[in-house]
Structure formats: structure tokens, C-alpha cells
């Protein structure tokens, strides 16, 4: 089969497709014929040598969409539409950057849809992270105001549209003034150009601050996000687009504003129930959940795709169509 294999950290342009053996699934595992996979920031970290738990060689990819090829344990039927994500994919065992991937049955979600494969391939990890951050990390409620820091990222876009669907008022940031219209088109109520002082801009509109904030940029802007949040509000740290993920000499009393809660989210596929994923897929298919795909690549264009991801040039999800 064709696959992208990492022997160690490389530049994007060094990524190549290789021929490797088709993997065999043990009982409790499922072999998926991959039709499409989305690109994720954690795969950039792995490829660039920034991941702390990397092992090589490995086929990267923490998500995939396709059909069941073989399920020795009988959990799924051959030909069944499925997606898979997380659970160690692309780190502890080979992931989705291949024509076939073998994953634990617990990481597989069945789905029924007429969506094209590129669109379905964009959804699993993006929706899982957005759904988990909003509901597990933040516990959002209709009528609240939400700030999405990193609003034009794939997860940021998904979080904004899911929050609007749930009845929230949404603030979302972008560093590029030309992208504010994209955010408006997605339904964002208050696009904000991020100049490092987002809290002041949020409080000009909402003097008490937002009740919930999703931090996707990193710890370098986290203090400003906390300042934008109301007393008894919550900030969920769920991403590090800036590659900044630690807080040196963290002193909570000095760091956290009075009464503002800080949580984190880094969950698994089990946090997104199959029925919730199917509902989101149906909403996307009906045109009621506007998910933005920036570009679809072939496997042979993986280097270009990773360069765009690394440089932060995309607005929305980058997807690779396998066949």
C-alpha cells in the first residue's frame, strides 16, 4: 500500500509516499480502507520533532475516514462507513496517512452519509476537539458569550459554528484583518483582529467579559484571554497554534484573575458519542453546519500541505484525499 512514513523529524518538503505492507488487524482491531484524512497540528509537532512521546518509524495521522476492510472481532461490517481518531493513532501505532490503517475498535465511529469523502475526512478530530472543549471543557449553555482565540483554525471554525448552533453569542479572533469577513460568513457575531490586546476589545462590546473562552493559540496569549473572561467564567486551554504550551514559574494567585476558572481539554473519540457525530454530519450535509475546508490535497502533495499547515496559511481544515 502507499503511505507516508516518518523515520524521524523532517522538513515538510522531505515527506514522501512509500510502498509498505498492508497491516493485519488482531481481534479487537479494525482495518480501514482510508479514503481521506484531515491534517492536524499534532502531526506537524511530530514531523518537526516537537512531540514528546514520538517513536519512529511511524505512519502519522490521528484521524481517518473510510470503509471497514476487516474486523476480526466482528465489531463492524466490511464496507461500513466509519471514521477513526485519537487513541494513539499516528503515535503509539501507525496512523491515517496511508491507504489502509489498523486501529482499536474503540477508536472507530460508524457513520451513514452521502457527504463526499473529503468533507467527511475533515470532520472527525475537528468536531471531537470542538465538541469536547465546548461541552466537557467549558460546559457551555445557550445564551452565554464565547470567545474563540484562534478562530480561523480548523478547530476554531468548528467551535464557532457548534456554539452558534447551541445558541451562544460568539466572539472569534484572527490576526489577519482580511479574514474577519470569513468569520462573519461562518456566523461569528463579533470577529476581532488579534493585536495581542483582545481582552480590551471584548470588554468594549461586553463590559463584564465572556462567560466562556476557548484558548487555541497557546500560553503566550492565555493571560489576555483570561482577562477577557467574566468572574465565574471559564477558559478552556485546548490548543497551541503558537507552539507555546507551558507556563514558566506558574503561580496561580498571581496568574489567574479573581474568580476566573482555567480548565483544559485533550480528550479521545469516546468524548464524541456516535449519535452526536452522526447528528453533526447530518447538519453538515443539510447545509446547517458550515464547516470550512481550506484545500484538498493528494497524497503526493503532502509536503505542500504540511508547509501550509506549519506556516498557518489555512483558514479551516486541510484534507488529503487518498484515492
Structure summary:
The chain has helices spanning about 40-50, 115-120, 125-135, 155-165, 180-185, 200-205, 220-225, 250-255, 275-285, 300-310, and strands spanning about 1-5, 15-20, 30-40, 65-70, 80-85, 100-105, 110, 145-150, 170-175, 190-195, 210-215, 230-235, 260-265, 295-300, 315-320. The protein folds into two domains: about 1-125 and about 290-320, Quinone Oxidoreductase, Chain A, domain 1 (Alpha-Beta Complex); about 125-265, 3-Layer(aba) Sandwich (Rossmann fold). With about 325 residues, the protein is an alpha/beta fold.
Q: Share of helix among residues? A: 25-40%
Structural category is: alpha/beta
| CATH architecture descriptor name of the largest domain | Alpha-Beta Complex
Low-confidence stretches at least 5 residues in length (pLDDT < 50)?
none
Give the overall pLDDT as a whole number.
Answer: 95
CATH superfamily of the largest domain: Medium-chain alcohol dehydrogenases, catalytic domain
Total strand count, please?
15
Q: How many structural domains can be distinguished in the coordinates?
A: 2
InterPro entries: ADH-like_N, ER, GroES-like_sf, NAD(P)-bd_dom_sf
Organism: Kribbella sindirgiensis
Domain Enoyl reductase (ER): 8-320
Protein name: NADPH:quinone reductase
Give an overview in words.
By secondary structure, the protein is α/β, with parallel strands linked by helices. The protein folds into 2 domains: 2-123 and 291-321, Alpha-Beta Complex (Quinone Oxidoreductase, Chain A, domain 1); 126-264, Rossmann fold, CATH 3.40.50.720. Helices cover 26% and strands 25% of the residues. The chain is built from 10 helices and 15 strands. The protein has helices at residues 41-48, 117-122, 124-137, 154-165, 180-185, 198-205, 222-227, 252-255, 274-285, 302-310, and strands at 2-4, 17-19, 29-38, 63-70, 81-85, 100-104, 108-110, 145-149, 169-174, 190-193, 210-215, 229-237, 261-264, 293-298, 317-321. The strands form 3 sheets. Strands 3, 4, 5, 6, 7, 14 and 15 form a 7-stranded mixed sheet that branches. Strands 10-9-8-11-12-13 form a 6-stranded parallel sheet, with helices on both faces. The chain has a two-stranded antiparallel ribbon with strand order 1-2. β11 (210-215), α7 and β12 form a beta-alpha-beta unit. The longest helix has 14 residues, at 124-137. The chain is globular, with a radius of gyration of 19 Å. This is NADPH:quinone reductase. InterPro entries: ADH-like_N, ER, GroES-like_sf, NAD(P)-bd_dom_sf. Keywords: NADP, Oxidoreductase.
Amino acid at each position: 500500500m502507499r503511505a507516508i512514513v516518518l523515520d524521524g523529524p523532517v522538513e515538510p518538503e522531505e515527506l514522501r509516499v512509500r510502498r509498505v505492507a498492508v497491516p493485519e488487524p488482531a481481534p479487537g482491531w479494525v482495518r480501514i480502507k482510508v479514503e481521506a484524512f484531515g491534517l492536524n497540528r499534532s502531526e506537524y509537532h511530530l514531523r518537526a520533532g516537537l512531540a514528546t512521546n514520538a517513536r519512529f518509524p511511524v505512519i502519522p495521522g490521528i484521524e481517518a475516514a473510510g470503509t471497514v476492510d476487516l474486523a476480526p472481532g466482528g465489531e463492524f461490517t466490511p464496507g461500513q462507513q466509519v471514521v477513526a481518531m485519537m487513541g494513539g493513532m499516528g503515535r503509539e501505532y501507525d496512523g491515517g496517512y496511508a491507504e489502509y490503517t489498523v486501529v482499536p475498535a474503540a477508536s472507530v465511529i460508524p457513520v451513514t452519509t452521502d457527504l463526499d469523502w473529503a468533507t467527511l475526512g475533515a470532520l472527525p478530530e475537528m468536531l471531537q476537539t470542538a465538541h469536547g472543549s465546548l461541552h466537557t471543557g467549558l460546559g457551555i449553555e445557550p445564551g452565554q458569550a464565547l470567545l474563540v482565540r484562534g478562530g480561523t483554525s480548523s478547530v476554531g471554525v468548528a467551535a464557532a459554528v457548534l456554539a452558534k448552533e447551541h445558541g451562544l453569542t460568539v466572539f472569534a479572533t484572527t490576526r489577519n484583518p482580511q479574514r474577519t469577513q470569513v468569520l462573519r460568513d461562518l456566523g461569528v457575531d463579533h470577529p476581532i483582529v488579534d493585536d495581542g490586546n483582545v481582552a480590551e476589545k471584548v470588554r468594549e462590546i461586553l463590559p463584564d467579559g465572556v462567560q466562556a473562552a476557548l484558548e487555541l493559540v497557546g500560553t503566550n496569549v492565555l493571560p489576555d484571554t483570561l482577562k477577557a473572561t467574566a468572574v465565574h467564567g471559564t477558559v478552556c486551554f485546548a490548543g497551541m497554534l503558537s507552539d507555546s504550551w507551558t507556563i514558566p514559574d506558574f503561580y496561580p494567585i498571581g496568574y489567574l484573575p479573581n474568580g476566573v476558572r482555567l480548565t483544559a481539554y485533550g480528550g479521545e473519540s469516546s468524548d464524541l458519542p456516535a449519535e452526536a457525530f452522526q447528528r453533526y454530519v447530518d447538519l453538515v450535509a443539510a447545509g446547517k453546519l458550515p464547516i470550512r475546508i481550506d484545500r484538498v490535497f493528494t497524497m503526493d502533495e503532502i509536503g505542500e500541505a504540511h508547509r501550509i499547515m506549519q506556516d498557518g496559511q489555512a483558514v479551516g481544515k486541510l484534507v488529503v484525499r487518498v484515492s
